[in-house]
Amino acid sequence: MDSASVSVSSNAKTDKPLHVVMLPWLAMGHVYPCLELSKILAQKGHYVTLLSTPTILDRLPKLPQSLLPFVKLTKLPLSPHIDKNHLPQDADSTMDIPSNKLYYLKLAFDGLQDSVSEVLKISNPDWVFFDFGASWLPQLASTLHIRCAYFSPCPAWSICFFDTPKQQLGDVAAATRTNPEDYYGPPKWVSFPTKIGLRPHEVKKLFEDVKLNETGASPVFDLNRANSGCDMFVIRSSRDLEPEWLDYLAEFYHKPVIPVGLLPPSMQVSDSDDEKNSPDWLQIKVWLDTQQGSSVVYIAFGSEVKLSQENLNELALGIELSGLPFFWVLRSLHKGLVQLPNGFEDRTKERGVVWTTWAPQPRILAHASVGGCLTHCGSGSMIENLYFGHVLVMLPFLLDQALYSRVMEEKKVGIEIPRNEQDGSFTRSSVAKALRLAMVDEEGSALRKNAKEMGKKFSNREVHNQYIENFIASLHNH
């Protein structure tokens, strides 16, 4: 990373404590980065109010005692006017609902406007952070004379790819993107070379979301309104990851774009004795200690991906076929949502672990026996994988995950498991082949080397701290 590119202005007045209110979309992948950034701001003596629903906030890990005076978790119950037949009680995050209920979750989220307004009026913060789910917030913040920042847990390329530039290119140009083929390759308005784009089966899912909703109506996520309305973009990213996309985003919207760094796990992982001596971690560590260095594949698909039984079967049998040692976090198995193929655990017990409860992912990834990751390419997981320099085997299921996978293939630090272009299916043999290529085959040695080199760059703590200082200075100076 080029530390000069993130230097702090010498005129920055960073002595005054700030107060930031954060309102993320109702998905854990959006809430966790807000919590991580809240903790970092609190460590610097600034105050944060994190707004979300009761169930989501109850799921978050406890804050260190020293940060409690600085971080306030404020519960906002969803609007009661949503029919509970459509949105069951306590179903107040994306992980709690099937995709055809998303319309109602967005409707309930929009119903929080009055509650959010009251919080802002009472607390009068210096800044309010939001993301794509709250396109109505910039107008509310403007009315109350509060500055607002779009905080994206995903890289800038995701914003640039999915938001058609209506204002910049005109309605005619925007209308040309109503065809599925327009999403197959890079956006036509991006001038620099990139292979970023979606596969036919991914675009099909994008266009079928309306049909999947039982109302026949699509949830209205007005990306252009959300992006155009902010005073500043704050991106969980770095110039080493995507310099051209960050520059393009600033040019695209004519607004400051502040990369906050990757918020790597070392900045949030507690070194308390309680965590290091937890029974779960000690049990996991005992098994990891018996494995050879860089030999284990860590497998996890996050909280948002819901694997079908067919996909789980092919994935499990591919992992078995690879012959590699593995540690697989599969919490959906504990919930009884899916089942492993008959005899899988017995056949692989000598070289693998299936873990069905919460797992301390950063600690596992930091262990010397882990050498690669089979991942869904969720933004948080990708950052942790890259931080530790592990080679990637990628199997994305959501659209932003697909873009992350394409960029990592461009950077030659991993391989995406091949799928049928039309229906997205994959086979056990393709899973096994990709795993072996990434982890042990000579053909994949360059991928492993590149991943380690990227890990060295992304684990530079001094540069990450510089990003944070620049971010805080930007909040003061804007």
Automatic annotation (TrEMBL):
CDD domains: GT1_Gtf-like
PANTHER family registered for this protein in UniProt: GLYCOSYLTRANSFERASE, GT2
Gene Ontology terms, MF aspect: UDP-glucosyltransferase activity
Domain of life: Eukaryota
Family listed: Belongs to the UDP-glycosyltransferase family.
Gene source species: Abrus precatorius
Record-linked Gene3D superfamilies: Glycogen Phosphorylase B
Pfam families, per the entry: UDPGT
The keyword Glycosyltransferase belongs to this UniProt entry's keyword annotation: yes
Protein name: Soyasaponin III rhamnosyltransferase-like
Keywords, sorted A to Z: Glycosyltransferase, Transferase
Keyword Heme included in the entry's annotation: no
